Amino acid sequence: MHTYLLTLLGGLGITIVLTLASLVVGLLTAILLTIGVLFGNRLLKYSIHAFLFFMRGTPLLVQIFLIYYGSGQFAWLRESFLWIGLRHPMVCAILALAMNSACYTSVLLQGAIASVPKNEVDACAAMGMSKWLAFRRVIFPRAFRIALPAYSNEVLMILKGTALVSTITLLDFMGVIQQLIATTYLPIPFYLLAGAVYLILNALITGIFKLLMRYHTASIT
Amino acid sequence: MQYSRMYQLGVFIFFCMSMVSHLAFAEPIKTIRFATEATYPPFEYVDATGQIQGFDIALAKALCAEMQARCYFENQAFNSLIPSLQIGRYDAIISALGITAERQKQVAFTDAYYEPSSSFVSAIRHHYHLSDLIGKKIGVQISTTFATYLEKTYADTIEIKYYSSIQDAFLDLLSGRVDAVLADTPIALSWLKQNDNHLAFAIVEHPLINHQYFGAGYGIAVAQNNPVLLKALNEALKKIKANGVYQKLMDTYFSDRDKS
Amino acid sequence: MSGFIDQIISSTVMTIELAIFALLLGLVVGLVGSLLESISIRWLRYIAASLIFIIRGLPEVLVLFFIFFGLTAVLSQLFNTFIDINAFAAGVLSLGLIFGAYASQVFRGAFLAIDQGQLDAGRAVGFSPLQVIFLIQLPQAWRHALPGLGNLWLILVKDTAIVSLIGLPEMMNQAKLAASTTNQPFLYYLIAALLYLIITSVSQVVIRFLSDRANRYIS
Description:
- The complex is a heterotrimer.
- Chain A is mainly alpha-helical.
- Chain A has a single domain, classed as Orthogonal Bundle (MetI-like fold), CATH 1.10.3720.
- In chain A, about 85% of the residues lie in helices and about 0% in strands.
- Chain A has helices at about 1-40, 40-55, 60-70, 75-80, 85, 90-115, 120-125, 130-160, 175-185, 185-220.
- In chain A, helix 1 (about 1-40) runs antiparallel to helix 9 (about 175-185).
- Chain B has two domains: about 25-115 and about 215-255, Periplasmic binding protein-like II (D-Maltodextrin-Binding Protein, domain 2), CATH 3.40.190; about 120-215, 3-Layer(aba) Sandwich (D-Maltodextrin-Binding Protein, domain 2).
- In chain B, about 40% of the residues lie in helices and about 20% in strands.
- Chain B is built from ten helices and 13 strands.
- Chain B has helices at about 1-25, 55-65, 80-85, 100-105, 145-155, 165-175, 185-195, 210-215, 225-240, 245-255, and strands at about 30-35, 40, 45, 50-55, 70-75, 90-95, 110, 120-125, 135-140, 160-165, 180-185, 200-205, 220.
- A five-stranded mixed sheet of chain B has the order 5-1-6-13-7. A five-stranded mixed sheet of chain B has the order 10-9-11-8-12, with helices on both faces. In chain B, strands 2-3-4 form a three-stranded antiparallel sheet, covered by helices on one side.
- In chain B, helix 5 (about 145-155) links the parallel strand 9 (about 135-140) and strand 10 (about 160-165).
- In chain B, helix 2 (about 55-65) crosses helix 9 (about 225-240) and helix 2 runs antiparallel to helix 10.
- Chain B is elongated, with a radius of gyration of 23 Å.
- Residues about 255-260 of chain B have low confidence and may be disordered.
- Chain C starts with a helix and ends in a 5-residue tail after the last helix.
- Chain C has a single domain (about 1-215), classed as MetI-like fold (Orthogonal Bundle), CATH 1.10.3720.
- Chain C has helices spanning about 1-35, 40-55, 60-80, 85-110, 115-125, 130-160, 170-180, 185-215.
- By secondary structure, chain C is mainly alpha-helical.
- Chain C is built from eight helices and no strands.
């Protein structure tokens, strides 16, 4: 029984690590993508829009398979330095989850930036700030606060997305649950356990964001 | 005179009773719903037209012909076969299912219709022997007898990678993410045959036979509360083994079995 | 190769069927859910809110696996006769429930956006509560609900890929089959991805058309 507990904790660890890593990489990439869309030349803008279109229009599962199994198809890829990372399911999982999240987050940020109150933007121009300085010091921080509630939703989507990685041999919490059910033939208790754990993680993330929002909006009159 | 009349009456009653009992206990099975996971050529697979084919399917059809029953086949994920049988969704499972003590707690098996061996497949250039597999990454299908064999026999000396489909494991063998794959020998042979895979990959040393893990053979699984179907399938199996139908099926699907 | 592509394309029919059935179930669940969430009976409200909270908080795979593997066992034991939930039905049920849980929030917002005066006028001319719902609220709420529902539909279409994990022969599994037989996973998963892209893009066009139509009287 306590080997079960150890295995479950191991799986939970993978889920948490995956979520955090994808979150960080995804957010950084999202910011880069958003900057590219706002300040880039036409080619960059079109490429990023095409990328966003593809990632938001296709299922996460396909993206995971494309990156993991798809990358193994090409000999030139396997012999390149990229293979050092791509051969590991963990790297592929983080890559897929991060890219997926980055695209949704970027669209979110673009919407939030567009809804920054115009008078603040005008004030920056009136003071003679360059577009980039205005963006860096005023617009982006403001937009981030606007996006925070919707972004909390996006983080929850990453958490749910991690449940798919057992398809590429990564034994996250959901994968361990499936493995234990396969050996014990007891689906109901294990699925109920899985449900409870994911709901607790959900509550934790929601709670953290509530704290974040309270801290942030406290500084706004 | 009275005695003979009573005797006639007795014979008549006995005849009626035996007819009734014959009808009551030997009710013919009309339809059988089989479940299988059709991702395991040559035992079961989905062909280019979307039909489920394979040795298991052909064998089941031969048994049904013998029993004069109609059989239906449905494709299900491997993990869900036994649970589905237990709750009555299907009448039988034929899916290269090894007869093991563990499984016999859950379902009833017919006599073995096939004795399995399993093989490690790896790249030819590695020149692996079975002893070289220590410390390597081995791919296997989750919740199969092969997975249990690896877990119990090699424990922590190897790194086991679990796949929901053996075909995914082979894809990772091709790309080098795993050093070897443990699979059913016919599946391994079938995979080696396709796409010229045998030019770069081969079975490590020889196929392994292990009754403890790979079971005493493959059987058709039937719910434990269905002895009628079990008996009917066993009798049909005996008949086709005796009349040559079984041997013909073996030759069709495992013609190169002795080449390793 | 063309044989495999044909099969993948014909499996898109299965995917779209699954999505449409789940949509229908989801709309009903969403409407019922939004009504239950604002009903005056307290315990009913709490149960509805809890169920919606739970379904929205779980990974889709978990809901699917629970319904496919777990619920069939539970229901069969409960009613002492086996109740069949095949892969398609399990897919429709789970995706429909998930859609409905999120849709209930969309409907709530949409109903709240309708001016109270409309409802009062309805009751004033003698409409029964049900008539108020169907003749006054729904037609007007539709306009507000459409963007949210449209988004949920796109998510639903993409979630159908998960149903491949319980063996349904839809696009993902056809692609997997082709990929394994030809050792070309990237090619066939890319084809599947492009087909999903076509479905979501066409959907977005349809949603925009419906949105324009719904807002045609609004300046």
